Amino acid sequence: MTALTDIVPPGVVTGDNLLKLLEHARDNGYAIPAVNCTSSSTANACLEAAAKNNSPVIIQVSNGGGAFLVGKSIKDANAAAAGSVALAYHVRAVAKYYGVPVVLHSDHCAKKLLPWFDGMLEADEEYYKMFGEPLFSSHMLDLSEEPDEENIDICVKYFKKMAPMKIWLEMEIGITGGEEDGVNNEDVDPEKLYTTPEQVYSVYEALSKIGPMFSIAAAFGNVHGVYKPGNVKLSPEKLLTHQEYTKEKIGSSLERPIFLVMHGGSGSTDDEIKLAVSNGVIKMNIDTDTQWAYWDGLRIFEAAKHDYLQGQIGNPEGDDKPNKKQYDPRTWVRKAEESMTARVALSMEKLGSVGTYPKSSEPGSQQVLGKKVNVVDGVISAVKGLLPH
Ligand SMILES: [Zn+2]
């Protein structure tokens, strides 16, 4: 196995490095968790999980997440784009300190939300002019509600705009059940919850003419959100049929020529996840489970410290004792973060990404652009350069 550390630098990865990262996942049979983030706090919790588990991570923002990030009081047509860009800048500013590859992605964009997508693309273009790479690594278009032909046409139109900046496109075809971001598929005909190999191939055919950097979320009985077990029949074995069909059509030497993405994975069994990954899933979305984890950390903290959280002064240790340490947001938000970090780590374990990006164990060394650089040596040679010869 080629070491990921030798081919992909730490920090936000875009373009060729992103392609290398996802090819590495495909070729080595693991997937990367993509976690919906709605704040700097939740983003940091993901970065912490990635750093502690030597794993790459995908941080993604939804339209609703973007609108929340800008501030709920702001009612502006560009609010969601502005908030999404703000999260991207936050992640860009801090990612390098965590020492692992980070993918910046935007989640489901239905037809009515295209102005949000356009706003983020504008930010990508601006960033590209300044730094020669886009702000985001990747964006998702979800036109699965539209007829297939229109879905694919719109994806082609956008992918042509994105390809020159080497931005990844994730698209969805077929119906994922449940409800997310205002799209409600709760009462859909169960037969329609499975994308066919022909549908997947038609996407491959259209997008591969433009570039290799795209992935497909094909429905295989997945449902957004958490449902009672038994209500959904997940069929990850169908994903292999997609791979085989396209492989045959294009005569590919790759066993799994298509990058697949798993949505609606909350509540899936470990075996279902494993089978999906072995059939070419390289990214799995996580939202519902990490939302719960974030809340659960706070819930447990409040239950344990309840009597210290009822007023600014006065607790079981005395009527005049201050409680500032307990109600400082850095205390209780941190509890939420720790709980979410642990949940993201669990997903990394299930998806097999743990340990794929080992940081150097040599003291004082860190990775810069994939090369191990000894910080002490670097400082010594810099100091030597300053001394008179
Ligand atoms: Zn989806």
From TrEMBL:
GO terms for cellular component: cytosol. Keywords: Glycolysis, Lyase, Metal-binding, Zinc. Its EC number is 4.1.2.13. One of its GO terms (molecular function) is zinc ion binding. It comes from Chaetoceros tenuissimus. This is fructose-bisphosphate aldolase. It comes from the Eukaryota. Its cofactor is Zn(2+).
